[in-house]
Amino acid sequence: MQIEYLEVIPLDLKLEQTYSGGTYKVDSRPTIVTRVYLSNGIVGETYGGDEFHTQMEIVSVIRDHLDPLLRGEDVRDHQRLWSKLFNINLDLGNRGLHQLDMHPRGILLQAISAVDNALWDARGKLYGVPVYKLLGGARDRVPVISIGGYYPVDDTDPCEAIAQEVDHVRAAGCMGIKMKVGRIELEADLERVRAARKAGGRDFILTVDSNQGWAPHDAIRFCVALEKLDLNVRWIEEPLKWWDQTDGLRLLASKTNIPINVGQGEISGRACRDLITKGDVNILNLDCTLCGGITEWQRVADMASLMNVEMAHHEEPQLAIHLIAGNPHGLFVEIFADRRRDPLLWMLPENFPIIENGYMKAPDAPGLGITLNQDVIAKFRIA
Ligand SMILES: [Mg+2]
């Protein structure tokens, strides 16, 4: 059961158009394929991450630092191996304003995530069990929502655009949408949410995401006004700017009954602990490609369960399906119903995903249950 070596391959695919969210724009789809080779011939393989600027730094950390640490280790010891990776003392350059501590920590945690997730695929293959069963097997299918509701880049009316998109998301088999808010005036955003509810009907799952767009009092104004419209919004996601998590979130939570969902901006389990105990949040959408992988995500999920907090997952359905299916307090898996936004999901896996009647089926093959298309990897790999 020994780990022989790791292999890591960065990919990037230019998107057909630019997508504009609350605080950012996206025009390409990068990701990293990670493989772990075991002495008995098993190969753990997965992909994850959506990081362009530091992609090569993450790849270098895996190649130069994490691979040597794992060679010869027993793949089954997931707690011990995770601690070994997490406690590495890595020097990624001088400490200075251009190199704040957050930057190298984020790179290291993404590198650990890529490796940890590939190790889980190898473990599942070794045991002959899908990863969601190893994590708890709470269910074998998970409701799907679509990330969308980007602001139109042309002069389409924003309310018409979101209504059309809701129709498309429904037609694509999703139960709901997560729509962007926070880039335009509050009243105009509220009109968009109202238009989405009208188009989706009563049972359509509707969530809103400002991508850390607001100061606390702006978020309070939005949530109080939104609540008055009685649109049954499932959650408000990442409402506050990066500099006022915890205390700011607690203030917002004291003013609104709309559930607050945060966590995709965090890279550690302990930060998630603080979001619950100090920020009073209701849902964590921690991302296992950012936080240290499936091992740490599951640790956070266990903590959250004991504190009556639900678990979501930011994007990455190829991994999230196992985490959400494995846990009874898991909520939805997220895809982009607009296939042009994440073409890799439909090209890279050879046998995924199956979506029926609003649910994604958990893969039942051992490990993560997804075979990656080697031609697609060859086509989009970065030299
Ligand atoms: Mg988000």
Automatic annotation (TrEMBL):
Keyword Zinc: no
Start and end residues of each Mandelate racemase/muconate lactonizing enzyme C-terminal domain: 159-259
GO molecular function (one): arabinonate dehydratase activity
CC cofactor: Mg(2+)
Keyword Heme part of the UniProt annotation: no
Alphabetical keyword list: Lyase, Magnesium, Metal-binding
Organism domain of life: Bacteria
Pfam families in the record: MR_MLE_C (PF13378), MR_MLE_N (PF02746)
Record's signal peptide: none
Entry's EC annotation: 4.2.1.5
Enzyme class: lyase
Protein known as: D-arabinonate dehydratase
Lineage: Bacteria, Pseudomonadati, Pseudomonadota, Alphaproteobacteria, Hyphomicrobiales
